[in-house]
Write a structure and sequence with these properties.
With 166 residues, the chain is mainly alpha-helical. It contains seven helices and no strands. The longest helix has 27 residues.
Length: 166
């Protein structure tokens, strides 16, 4: 079942890259549904939990476009919650911290308040900074730091634009 979920998630990525957004959303949703069932059946399986958090991150762009704010917020916070628990349970496993950092940096939409976006990005930036210090030889730590800085600059630019044009 986990391989089927991974297949749906990979198919969603292919659909998204080729502009087939409805099919991408459907495939991503199917992958999430399978992983939600697997994590309920096997709540101690760390691999299923991590896969579900990553699947939520992949599904978030679709959920954020919809009009259902509850679904959008649930998808964003569910993935972050899973990753935060994994980081707490396994503080010496940096992969979970890397995944949490990436999710914090990327999972927000233009529909959210700038303060909420900026706060989440700053959390990701702080984690990216820590990861760079603790794992200086891991290129992903530098990439996450650059991504966090870019997203923070975008949020601040949006805030300035709102002040000028309101």
């Amino acid at each position: 079942m986990a391989e089927l979920a991974r297949t749906f998630n990979n198919l969603a990525l292919a659909y998204r890259r080729t502009g087939h957004y409805r099919e991408a959303k459907s495939s991503q949703r199917q992958g999430v549904d399978i992983l939600e069932k697997l994590t309920k059946q096997h709540p101690d399986d760390v691999d299923f939990r991590l896969a579900l958090a990553i699947a939520y991150r992949g599904f978030y762009p679709f959920a954020s476009r919809g009009s259902d704010r509850r679904e959008r917020d649930q998808v964003r916070t569910a993935g972050i919650d899973i990753l935060e628990r994994l980081v707490d349970e396994f503080p010496k496993v940096p992969d979970y911290q890397f995944e949490l950092c990436e999710t914090l940096i990327t999972n927000f939409s233009s529909r959210e308040s700038l303060g909420d976006r900026r706060g989440q990005i700053k959390r990701g930036l702080a984690l990216a900074s820590t990861l760079m210090q603790e794992h200086p030889g891991v290129p992903r730590s530098r990439v996450l730091m650059a991504d966090a800085l870019r997203e923070l600059a975008r949020a601040q630019t949006s805030e300035l634009a709102e002040q000028w044009y309101v």
